[in-house]
Design a protein that fits this description.
Type_1_exporter, alpha/beta, transport, four-stranded antiparallel β-sheet, ABC transporter transmembrane region fold, elongated, ATP hydrolysis activity, ATP-binding, six-stranded mixed β-sheet, ABC1_TM_dom, 578 residues, binds adenosine-5'-triphosphate
Length: 578
């Protein structure tokens, strides 16, 4: 995993190396300072002239000033590297997220993803930007200091070496436990985040059903779990740090003690003992820093595992097709579903079973049926949000999997029952369909979709901010914006999935007229519950239990008195009661 993590430092490696080099210079200033201090102390014991102390004091002051500057420069390199690494990681994550598409979002909870994408990436900063350069600094520093210490007193060298080994290896013993706790932390953090997002989005429902207390309790339980994990993490981290602190303190004390003993035995000079005294502290300084970074990094490790787990999620809808799907102006493609079977998720219950459906070039086909029959699933498959397990779907007689997904979706305009508005102006939201559109084109589409009047009445007209944190629009208004989007995209295949379900009666006939006009030179698939809106379709397909049970013109189906008539009767009865 560490190697994989290192791969994301590409683009920031120069800065990381610079940071490590500056770190070595900083260690150098500490070593020089230690030597100067050692010299000063030995002068003090020798009771030499005070003037001799002046260069030592000046030298130490110089080291302090130099170190302050180096620390400042190291911070700049560190921050630059951190931002680059985090940017790379997030770009990788977002790219994969978009490749996974709607199929992934079926299982994933937004709050969990958010916690990994945002906070997980932040948690990795310490490991990538502090720990890795510190490994270099520590290794080089020790390679320089240890042999010198051993040359002064071999036994002291061995003691320092063993203490360093213990300090480095000790955190590794806790690794498994720390990792487990880290996983628990992200799990509970993700749960809390998901619950919170859920509560925010469903606030109206919670209040309407007096269920906010229960939701509040669930949030409290999740917050409590997170607290417990955080405390566990702190405990283990503190114990591990205490071990390392103990090993370094014992190492320093032993090396000075042994040095003093050797001095008393006449085996070591006073000047060497003072050097050992100050240098042994410098030996352990980078180790302590390394240990501190290791502990700060451990949440990053478990976050990294979650990130890699996400990055390894198989993309189920593969974009392998290289063929271009460019439909020349005026040409209307045909669509064919042949023996299509499809199940969501675990595949236990098929949403479509052996479905056959043909939409001839330029025809308007309607798909009707009871709720849950599988109508929207047909659209999901046509847009390749999912791929069927068996059977084939063809556009213009060629399997849709052979076209690039971008090309495929470029040729289809879909209007759904639910319209998502992004944070931004009304104009931006419509422009999503055709970024290069002129304002006049946008306005013309809004007039046709009966959206222009209400948009003009908004505080800043087309420049009014909508979406999250923006002006709230009604369901019908949102749907008219989505119809304007569809009109602007004007692709050769039109899919209307309950496109006017939220539109009020006064606007419906006018919008229906515009949609009919839009559908005139296209191949159209309409899904509608209100059967009056599809009566003019070239052919109506009736779905029942995941497959087509009958099809024909409205007239044919009415005279057959089958499933379609059942639906008509049920609807008429419903309308009469309404
Ligand atoms: N994203 C999904 N994940 C899992 N199951 C799903 C998903 N979407 C739909 N289903 C299931 O697949 C079946 C068909 O659903 P689909 O939405 O296609 O029906 P529909 O005919 O469009 O219904 P409605 O008219 O109510 O919109 C249903 O049993 C539904 O529960």
């Amino acid at each position: 995993m560490i190697l994989r993590l290192l791969s994301v430092t590409k683009g920031a490696r120069g800065s990381l190396l610079a940071k490590a080099l500056i770190g070595m210079l900083i260690t150098g200033t500490y070593i020089v300072q230690a030597f100067l201090l050692a010299k000063g102390v030995s002068y003090a014991f020798a009771e030499l002239n005070w003037r001799l102390f002046i260069p030592i004091i000046l030298g130490i002051a110089l080291m302090v000033v130099l170190r302050a500057h180096l620390l400042w420069i190291r911070e700049i390199f560190g921050k630059y590297a951190a931002e680059r690494v985090k940017e790379t990681l997030r770009i990788n994550l977002f790219e994969h997220f978009f490749h996974l598409g709607p199929a992934y979002m079926e299982d994933g909870r937004t709050g969990k993803l958010q916690s990994i994408f945002i906070d997980g990436v932040e948690a990795l900063e310490v490991f990538l930007v502090d720990y890795i350069p510190q490994v270099l600094v520590t290794a080089i520093g020790l390679i320089c200091i240890l042999p010198y210490m051993a040359s002064l007193d071999p036994l002291v060298g061995v003691i320092v070496f063993v203490s360093i080994l213990i300090s480095v290896l000790c955190p590794m013993f806790w690794d498994k436990l720390m990792n487990k706790i880290g996983h628990g932390h992200w799990e509970s953090y993700g749960n809390l985040n998901s619950q919170f997002v859920d509560a925010m989005q469903g606030m109206t429902t919670l209040k309407a059903f007096n269920a906010s207390d229960e939701k509040g309790n669930e949030l409290e339980r999740d917050a409590n779990e997170l607290y417990n994990h955080t405390m566990k993490k702190l405990n283990v981290s503190l114990i591990s740090s205490a071990f390392v602190g103990f090993a370094t303190a014992i190492g320093t004390a032993l090396s000075v003690g042994i040095g003093a003993f050797h001095l008393s035995m006449g085996m070591l000079a006073m000047s060497s003992l003072t050097v050992i005294l100050f240098l042994s502290t410098e030996c352990f300084r980078p180790i302590n820093d390394l240990n501190a970074y290791w502990h700060k990094s451990f949440l990053g490790f478990s976050a990294a595992e979650k990130m890699f787990e996400f990055l390894d999620t198989t993309i189920t809808v593969l974009d392998k097709g290289n063929d271009r799907l460019v439909i020349p102006e005026g040409i209307r493609p045909s669509i064919d579903f042949n023996a299509v079977t499809f199940s969501y998720n675990d595949g236990t219950r098929p949403a479509l079973k052996n479905l056959n459906l043909s939409i001839p070039s330029g025809a308007k086909i309607a798909l009707v049926g009871q709720s849950g029959a599988g109508k929207s699933t047909v659209v999901n498959l046509l847009l390749r949000f999912f791929d069927p397990q068996t059977g084939s779907i063809k556009i213009s007689k060629k399997e849709i999997g052979k076209y690039s997904i971008q090309d495929l979706r470029r040729q289809i305009t879909a209007v759904f029952q639910d319209t998502y508005l992004f944070y931004g102006t009304v104009e931006d939201n419509i422009r999503v369909a055709k970024p290069e559109a002129s304002f006049d084109e946008i306005e013309a589409c809004c007039r046709n979709s009966k959206a222009h009047d209400f948009i003009s009445a908004l505080p800043q007209g087309y420049q009014t901010i909508v979406g999250e944190r923006g002006v709230r629009l009604s369901g019908g208004e949102r749907q008219r914006i989505s119809i304007a989007r569809a009109m602007l995209k004007d692709a050769p295949i039109l899919v209307l999935d309950e496109a006017t379900s939220n539109v009020d009666a006064s606007n419906e006939s006018a919008i229906q007229e515009s949609l009919d006009r839009l559908a005139r030179n296209k191949t159209t698939l309409v899904i509608a519950h209100r059967l009056s809106t599809i009566i003019d379709a070239t052919e109506i397909y009736v779905m029942e239990n995941e497959h087509i049970c009958e099809h024909g013109t409205a007239q044919e189906l009415i005279s057959r008195d089958g499933a379609f008539m059942e639906l008509m009767k049920a609807q008429n009865a419903g309308e009469k009661m309404g």
